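Quick one, probably user error.
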């Protein structure tokens, strides 16, 4: 039969979306005896305060300035496809305050590896070159050559010590201060690196959180702190007024994969992103109709 999953009495100010085995409108078809799983997600559709920007998803295609191959695919931001030799960048279109502290949360997923391996990864980037800033492909992860920048790499290809890569599954922080940035080892651009336990190339959704308090930057993955580095952004990048452009970069080379962002929130100072409530429903076959959530 055909069914529609719906929701009533949800939290005020939140938008509902459907995923899993349900269509975007909540529709699902079931054969006799068949079981399917639908997920109902309630997302705050507005930034929680003037100190935050929030993208619960990337549909419609408005918001960050997209460069290179970066494009909206459905409701995700695909920084690159799994074609070789690609780059993609996405920048918030105006400078935001970073020097006094911020929290950046985003979910990402890497899928469909191609070429010699799934590569190369993405970065969360802070830069003062402008909203049209671009970088080089492959292991350069789309940020090589950006002056006055600092990036947090989520890197899935081992380019060796000269790139500061300990393996093909790590997080790293790179900056050359006001000079053009790029992957490098200790004594060059590398400020800190950590090998990861969960594989970034497992096709699953991963949640990253980057927190900056003046003098310290920390990176968490899937709720676990994985790296902390000592850095003063205003001094390192010579920001002056403490503001910079924020966004993401990505690249592929001889190896490739789809690099997708599912959502993003960025809050300055002590502002935190909105809570995210997910309700999972198990739909079984009966005589059809509307199923609703009671809470």
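Nope, works fine. Designed sequence:
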């Amino acid at each position: 039969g055909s069914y529609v999953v719906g929701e009533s009495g949800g939290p005020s100010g939140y938008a509902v979306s459907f995923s899993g085995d349900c269509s975007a409108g909540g529709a699902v078809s079931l054969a006799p005896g068949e079981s399917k799983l639908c997920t109902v997600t309630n997302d705050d559709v507005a930034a929680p305060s003037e100190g935050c920007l929030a993208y619960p998803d990337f549909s419609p295609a408005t918001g960050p300035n997209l460069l290179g191959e970066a494009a909206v695919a459905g409701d995700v931001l695909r920084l690159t496809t799994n074609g070789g030799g690609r780059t993609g960048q996405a920048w918030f279109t105006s400078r935001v305050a970073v020097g006094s502290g911020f929290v950046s949360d985003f979910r990402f997923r890497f899928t469909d590896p191609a070429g010699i391996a799934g590569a190369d990864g993405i970065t969360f980037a802070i830069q003062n070159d402008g909203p049209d800033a671009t970088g080089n492909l492959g292991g350069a992860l789309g940020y090589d050559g950006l002056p006055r920048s600092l990036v947090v790499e989520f890197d899935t290809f081992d380019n060796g010590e000269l790139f500061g890569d300990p393996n093909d599954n790590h997080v790293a922080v790179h900056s050359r201060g006001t000079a053009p940035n790029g992957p490098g080892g200790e004594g060059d651009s590398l400020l800190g690196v950590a090998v990861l336990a969960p594989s970034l190339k497992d096709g699953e959704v991963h949640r990253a959180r980057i927190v900056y308090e003046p003098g310290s930057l920390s990176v968490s993955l899937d709720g676990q702190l994985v790296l902390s580095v000592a850095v003063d952004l205003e001094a390192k990048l010579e920001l002056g007024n403490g503001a910079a452009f924020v966004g993401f970069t990505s690249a592929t080379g001889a190896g490739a994969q789809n690099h997708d962002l599912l959502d993003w929130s960025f809050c300055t100072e002590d502002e935190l992103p909105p809570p995210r409530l997910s309700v999972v429903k198990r739909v079984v076959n009966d005589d059809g109709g509307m199923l609703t959530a009671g809470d």
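The CA atoms of residues 175 and 189 lie 5 Å apart.
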